[in-house]
Structure formats: C-alpha cells, structure tokens
Recover the amino acids of this structure.
C-alpha cells in the first residue's frame, strides 16, 4: 500500500520548467511528463508518458526502509502483589484457572495434580495451598511427579502429627512437563 502525500504541483512544475505554472494541491500521486530536451512539460492524468518523454512522479511513496534495531528488553515479570483466594472442598482436580491462586479448604480435601494432557499449566506456574481447617492431601495423577511429596499428606493439618498450625500452607510450582515441586513450610525447632 502506498502512502499518499499532498503535493503542490505548481511548485514542482515551476521549478522544473524554470517558469510559472498554475496547478492545484492533491492527495494522490501526480505524473508529469518532460520532453527529452526539457523544453516542455505536461500533466499526465493517466500516469502514462509518450515515447521520448521522461516520467516524473510527484508524491510517490518510496520503497519501505529496512527494519530498525530491536528495542531493549522490558522489565522482568514478577510474582503479583496480590493473589486471588479460591475455596475448594472435598475433591478438587487442578484446572488452568487455579494458576496463580490461593486455594484454601474448610474441610478434609484432596487436591489432584492432573497430567498435562488434561490441564497444561505453563512451566513456573504457582498454586498456593492453605489448610484453613482439618486435613489437606495432594496427590499426583498417574504419570505426574510431585517432588517433595512423601506421604501425600502435606503438613496442613490443624494440630496434626506435623504440629502445623491452622492456616499453614504449601506451594505447588510446575518444573517441567508433568513434574511439580511441592514447597512446604519449614518446621520450627
């Protein structure tokens, strides 16, 4: 697509012919035909010059220039300053909309981490888990590995064998295809 510029034909024709010409302003290209000896000029409304004339196109867009240098990289992204809580209870299989959320339960809850074929979370996805009450288990679907998971029960039980207080939590982070980390709170000594 050509860019059209307003051209003052009078100025161009006047300069080329060395004389005065009457012309008008236009928003399209203008074709001027000049005789071989430069003795005469004419406006070619059709854009075609006769044999022996030189074609001059005023207001024509030139070829596109080469691409400029790439801009500098933007700032690195970070973990959001806020996180949206979502209540889950009973049995919950993770879905893509759980990414970046705080999942909390008010009853015994089992959280299943699905295969990528069911929910393909991006590498680095974080899902926070908080046990507001009772027990929470995290279990991998067949074919999923959760590093840091030993018994399936994460230390989210109020006054449990892990002596975790109510409101304790953990974070799931996707490491690779069908592989996650379960980051648990450090046990106080």
């Amino acid at each position: 697509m050509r860019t059209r510029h307003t051209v003052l034909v009078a100025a161009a024709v006047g300069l080329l012919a060395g004389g005065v010409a009457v012309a008008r302003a236009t928003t399209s290209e203008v074709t001027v035909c000049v005789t071989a000896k430069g003795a005469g000029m004419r406006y070619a409304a059709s854009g075609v010059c006769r044999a022996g004339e030189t074609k001059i196109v005023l207001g024509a867009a030139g070829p596109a220039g080469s691409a400029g240098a790439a801009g500098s990289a933007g700032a690195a992204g970070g973990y959001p300053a806020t996180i949206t809580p979502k209540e889950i209870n009973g049995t919950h299989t993770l879905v893509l909309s759980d990414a970046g959320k705080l999942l909390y339960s008010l009853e015994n809850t089992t959280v299943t981490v699905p295969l990528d074929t069911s929910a393909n979370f991006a590498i680095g996805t974080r899902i926070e888990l908080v046990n507001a009450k009772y027990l929470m288990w995290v279990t991998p679907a067949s074919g999923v590995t959760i590093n840091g998971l030993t018994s399936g029960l994460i230390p989210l039980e109020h006054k449990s064998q892990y002596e975790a207080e109510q409101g304790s939590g953990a974070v799931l982070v996707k490491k690779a295809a069908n592989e996650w980390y379960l980051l648990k709170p450090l046990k106080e000594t």
Remarks:
- Residues 1-17, 155-164 have pLDDT under 50 and may be disordered.
